[in-house]
Amino acid sequence: MAANSKTFHVERPFRLTQDQDESLHLLYLPLIGSLALSLYTMLVHLCDPTHQKSAHYPQSYLLDSLAQAPSALQEARETLEASALLKTYEDDTHHTYLLQEPMTPKLFVKSALFPYIKANISQDRVLDLSDRLRLNVKVKPQGKEISKRLDERFKPLHAKPNQAVLQVKSPVDVKQVINTLPLTLLPENARTRELEQLCAQMTFLYDLSERQLHEVCLNVLSQNKPLDALTLSHAAHGFVKPQAHTRSYRSDLEYFQAVHPKKLISDLTGTNPVAADLRIVERLLTEVPWPLEVTNVLLAYVIQELDQQIPAFGYFEKVIAQWNRKKIRTAQAALEHIEAQRAKKKEPKPSYTPRRKSKQNVEMDVDWFSDYLKQQEGENK
After folding, report:
1. Which of 64, 143, 166, 346 has its CA at a distance of 20 to 30 angstroms from the CA of residue 52?
2. Beta partners for 8?
3. 183, 115 in Cβ contact below 8 A?
4. Degrees to nearest 5, angle at CA 257 with 254 and 263
5. Rounded Cα–Cα distance for residues 373 and 376 (Å)
6. pTM of model > 0.70
7. Higher pLDDT, 160 or 242
């Protein structure tokens, strides 16, 4: 079938922002040219604003609207594809044009496209663009700021356990490690603050170095898997190696505030934690909105109660629910609660003798029932 006789439709799963429109006209235009930009703009406006897709049109619609030959239109389309602004899908009779979001100026200057811009335009023009798109403009307002904070105007919301984020201090520069990952494997829009915090948690839990964290991320991405808690955890387990340990467990406050959960388990059990133990610790750190010191006390308490065994996560959830009801949020409060519970167990239980009805009461009840039956028989005669 001739190319001009095919049909097409457009899909646009986003709305253009002002920053993206600025990028198109100031950054993309010198690179892709006016025809490719006109084609992109036309495809954007063909989409219905409600459903974010267009009706079906013949290919000749584009040729007539842009007054271009088929070869020029194909070249413009391929330019958009190479610039990551368009994806094209084809079958025997139809093309689907899936529009891609333009990068904002902040992302564009960090992308692989920016060097091509610098190569195609003069240095003066590059400086002009840099001046127009400068992002870190410092504003110096006059007077003292009196704006209200969020917590001053709105009541705090109680976060659910699965929304909690444990803030840990990692010796590894996690952001630098993420920035060294190839853009082809991890695009800019996936390099979020949440990913940095997740990598910091994994680095803390598994004692990863910068090189090891880099290898863990590459291992996951090379398998076309997302960087989430599950995939990073599985990849990080490969770096867990047995270490020499000494049983130096202490039950004082300073110990719980400073110890790493892995070392706490080793100190208590005399063995290195296995993969299943680390997964339990990982869930405690990422799903329970407690300070690390409280989580350490919880681990020590449960392991001691169960004779140096680490149970399934469901057992921890029961203790967590009880401590939440008690509003325990510090290691000191947790230790005091445990001490009170153990003291309560040692108290002698009061003797209890169940009350029993006396024989006289039983006989009275029987006599009353017998009299009632005799009375009923007399009334029936």
Report:
1. 64
2. 57, 95
3. no
4. 100
5. 5
6. no
7. 242
